[in-house]
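Problem 12. The chain below contains 284 residues. Write out its predicted structure in token notation.
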Amino acid sequence: MSADQTPITAGEYIIHHLTHWTSAPRGGVIDFSIIDIDSVIFAVGLGLLACFVLWRVAQGMRSGVPGRLQGAVEFLVEFVDEQARGIVRNAKSREFVTPLAFVSFIWIIMMNLMDLLPVDLLPRLWQTAHAGQDPEHVFLRVVPTADLSVALGMSITILLLSLYYGIKVKGLGGWLHELFTAPFGNHPLLWPLNFAMQLLEYLAKTLSHGMRLFGNLYAEEILFMIIALMGAAGLSNLTGWALFFGNIAAGLAWSIFSMLVIVLQGFIFMMLTLVYIGQAHDHH
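Solution.
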């Protein structure tokens, strides 16, 4: 929906752009059966695109002087492998964890990059494809990582992998023993406190892992909408050209800064993935 062509307020414009295309009306309550269809489509599509590009690079690798894309991929692979070697000590585990960290890094960056598209571009095209419907009831969000369900889904996946490797490395008995005896000791009176602290640690790591990614991209998304509203306000008022050109300058400046955030958030998520799985291998 274009902010400069619809008779809605700035608040309505932002709310509309923050509403997902879902499998059913939300109804104002939390319902885990409802799927954010737009997030699923963009996340899966970008993931497949990332895998295809990496596959094509792998197929075209050759000795000698590599091309730019091959050189960039080789650099990233070596960088992630070096980080994994320093954090996850188990060589067998690294056979899966290192590619996982690398792919998650690329995948998150590609999802984050959707935030650099013009705010109204894909939503307006989506509304055009649904010309027979009321535009105010046609929704589309294009940044999967700005969806809390996607970010937490990824962090919960890392939690499950951490539990899996903890049990695999220590054995079920050793993992349960550690669950009730760390960090305060093996005295039976301390077992409930140890168990509560372990659960709290798992919960805090999982929530912070996902919320950090979601919060930064959600804030970026809102700021781009506010900048778009600046431009709309400038165009709607002949005396507002300064505001319009301010919109262009602000949009350019924020896009440049966003490139840092986009890469940094992918790097942080990747590193925390390695750290949490690496911690699952440690004995306390």
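Discussion. Confidence is low (pLDDT under 50) at residues 1-6. Students who got a different answer should revisit the alignment rule from Section 12.3.
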